[in-house]
Amino acid sequence: MADVHAPDTPPFDSQALLRRLHGDAALAKAMAALLLQELPAQTQALHRAVETANVEGVAQVAHALRGAVSNFGADEVARAAYNLERMAVDGRLADSADAQKTFDDAVARLIPALRELTA
Amino acid sequence: MKRKYTILLADDDKVQTMMLSTQLRAKGYSVAAAYDATYTVMVAMKSPPDLIVLDIRMPGGTGKAALERIKGSSKTNQIPVIILSGFSDKQTIQETLALGAFEYMTKPVDVEKLDASIRRALGLPPAEPAAAPPGAAPDSPPPDDLPPRDDWGR
């Protein structure tokens, strides 16, 4: 898979988020705080599901993560979660090391950006 | 709205649920949340809401199974169910509509579109158009390099 991340691309689209919330900045902050709270546990659950070859678990968590970050326009994380979800559904979890790293890297970029929003 | 309609949001995505519950409350609805399929059915049976917004992929059984149980019980089969899902393939859409879902919407959803669907399902007149707040603008299309939404989830 090509690395679609460009250094200048923000990890999420704050304007898209605000548009979706019809300009409600307080709600955007609250959502970012909740996502920050959820991301570590969800990421951990995803890794655990991959390690135990829990296909349904991977698909479930990756799907939920994709839904959560899509509200933020966090396309890099959404795409990485989607890839893992597809790999689970297609029975290719054994080959998912690169996809997991891509996902982890994308999440690692997203977290500080979300923290900035909540500051 | 003359009376407060109760919406049950059934989705394991807490961020999505927070967003929609805040926005729907601001529109005058009373909102309850359920984070898995089993709990959704339990809440629907115990305190039937006026409408259910149901995700397809949830822990504790699928949203489809929850929909089947809701539509299969005389206590809940009159409750309109709007599917809100990351899946947008024809088969899933057809299956859920055949099971009795009122409408099928794909994530991420705009609350105005969801509200319009809720109003149709509840037989309410369309909402008066609100003035756009600063920063608000129509949804932009997804970037070209994202997987096509029709393909997401399968």
Keywords:
heterodimer, A: 119 residues, mainly alpha, 0% strand, B: 154 residues, alpha/beta, Rossmann fold, five-stranded parallel β-sheet, 5 helices, 5 strands, 35% helix, disordered C terminus
Number of DSSP helical runs of chain A: 5
Order of helices and strands of chain B: EHEHEHEHEH
Residues in β-strands, percent of chain A: under 5%
Query: pLDDT average of chain A, as an integer?
Result: 90
Q: What would you call the shape of chain B?
A: globular
CATH uppermost class of chain B = Alpha Beta
The residue fraction in helices of chain A comes out at over 70%
* Domain unit count of chain B: 1
Describe the overall structure.
The complex is a heterodimer of chains A (119) and B (154). Chain A is 73% helix and 0% strand. The longest helix of chain A has 27 residues. Chain A has 119 residues and is an all-alpha fold. The mean pLDDT of chain A is 90. Chain A contains 5 helices and no strands. Chain B starts with 5 loop residues before the first strand and ends in a 32-residue tail after the last helix. With 154 residues, chain B is an alpha/beta fold. Chain B contains 5 helices and 5 strands, in the order E-H-E-H-E-H-E-H-E-H. Chain B has a single domain, classed as 3-Layer(aba) Sandwich (Rossmann fold), CATH 3.40.50. The radius of gyration of chain B is 15 Å and the shape is globular. The C terminus of chain B is likely disordered. The longest helix of chain B is centred in the first third of the chain and has 13 residues.
